[in-house]
Specification:
CATH superfamily of the largest domain: Hypothetical protein, domain 2
Structural class: alpha+beta
Oligomer: single chain
Shape: elongated
Order of helices and strands: HHHHHHHHHHHHEEEEHEEEEHEH
Number of strands: 9
Helix content: 40-55%
Bound molecules: iron/sulfur cluster
Number of helices: 15
CATH architecture of the largest domain: Orthogonal Bundle
Distance between the termini: 70 Å
Largest sheet: 9 strands, mixed
């Protein structure tokens, strides 16, 4: 493309239809996309359901990581109906390891809504998509454009970076990004899917956060941040969020060779996953000893336990980083003495009651937080 002679001030006016800068950017992006489309399994998909699943999975997760999860998920739940009819427990189990479990819960809920409201057909209308559980502007734009060819932008983190640089935005507000992404999609005429994917792919490869390869960039001659020498300043950095350390204590409660799992509430952190019973994460250290754990087991779960012992060295203290805090979890072991929570013989009662006594040979059948997998392996080896 020719170098733009129309560089306007940062955060300038909305490009008009036919704007030469936008038209040239769009053409160059499409040419580049056509020449190097990434070999990602779902890029060849035409099934709106599968496109939707892939786009949700790819959020906050690297493409390379998603591939195997996508294959497993769509094999187990090949249609909207299959997902809607599935037990949430099973959905979470198949999702296990991908993190951000709210996405799986929303997918499951939205599948039910699609069956109920749209007879099992993923809607093409952006507003109808937006009304589904967990579907925001990005997912709606991606599904509408990629699955149905609707001229709707899809601005993820990569697109935010690319657009902020191409237009040298001092402030990249969602509204401004949406306007500029829309102008590029409109300039792509009947190829909104390719335009959205080209922008995202450029951000995922050439226009990387720290070391953009501007020398290899197909739109370098129209990049206003490159011309202005402000690439490193675009997009403006968000204030780093503080990430406090929170501590909690959990109990591995043994009973006749089985361990007590409790199901976390569906709403909230790690919702719907199985966990050891324990205290809520709070800022500050966990005191040695019970740390309120005995009372928690008695009051929240109606269980009386033997004195607590520090858990085995291999898994006594677990550290895990969530997006908004760091968890330090101290594990104790103990024995059940009395109280509710079903019987060991009735293991499958768990789904209905929220409690399950699980023998080590069945640990892996339960969807648990990623940070518990290693302790569970150790526990399995030293079962009581
Ligand atoms: S020229 Fe550099 S900063 Fe501009 S879009 Fe290309 S890679 Fe990104």
């Amino acid at each position: 493309m020719t170098a733009s002679s129309q560089i306007s001030p940062s955060d300038g006016p909305t490009p008009r239809a036919g704007d030469a800068h936008v038209t040239a950017l769009a053409r160059a992006l499409l040419d580049w996309f056509d020449s190097r489309e990434r070999d990602v399994a779902w890029r060849h998909e035409r099934d709106p359901y599968r496109i939707w699943v892939a786009e949700v999975m790819a959020q906050q997760t690297r493409v390379g990581t998603v591939a195997s999860y996508y294959a497993r998920f769509t094999e187990r739940f090949p249609t909207v109906f299959a997902l809607a009819e599935a037990d949430l427990d099973e959905v979470l189990h198949v999702w296990q390891g991908l993190g951000y479990y709210a996405r799986a819960r929303h997918l499951h809920a939205a599948a039910g809504q699609i069956v109920e409201r749209h007879g099992g057909e993923v809607p093409s209308d952006v507003e109808a998509l937006r009304s589904l559980s967990g579907v925001g502007p990005y997912t709606a734009g991606a599904v509408a454009s990629i699955a149905f060819g609707v001229a709707e932008p899809a601005v993820d983190g990569n697109a935010r970076r690319v657009i902020s640089r191409l237009f040298d935005l001092e402030r990249s507000t969602p509204a401004r990004l949406d306007t500029l992404a829309r102008s590029l999609v409109d300039a792509a005429v009947d190829r909104p899917a390719e335009m959205n994917q080209a922008i995202m792919d450029l951000g995922g490869s050439v226009c990387s956060p720290r070391r953009p390869a501007c020398g290899d960039c197909p739109v370098s001659s129209g990049c206003r941040a490159l011309a202005a020498g402000t690439v490193a300043l675009r997009p403006p950095r968000r204030e780093p969020r503080s990430s406090p350390i929170r501590t909690a204590a959990s109990a591995v409660v043994w009973r006749d060779g089985a361990v007590l799992f409790v199901r976390r509430p569906e709403r909230g952190l790690l919702g719907g996953l199985w966990d050891f019973p324990g205290t809520k994460p709070e800022e500050g250290p966990v005191a040695p000893g019970d740390a309120g754990l005995v009372e928690e087991l008695r009051d929240a779960h109606g269980i009386v336990i033997a004195p607590l012992e520090p858990a085995g060295e291999a898994f006594a203290r677990i550290r895990h980083a969530f997006s908004h805090f760091h968890l330090e979890l101290v594990l104790f072991e103990t024995r059940w003495i009395s109280g509710k929570a079903g019987s060991v013989d009735d293991q499958m009662a768990g789904s209905a009651t929220g409690y399950a006594w699980v023998t080590p040979d069945r640990f892996e059948k339960f969807a648990v937080p990623a940070y518990l997998r290693s302790p569970l392996r150790s526990l399995g080896q030293g079962a009581r």
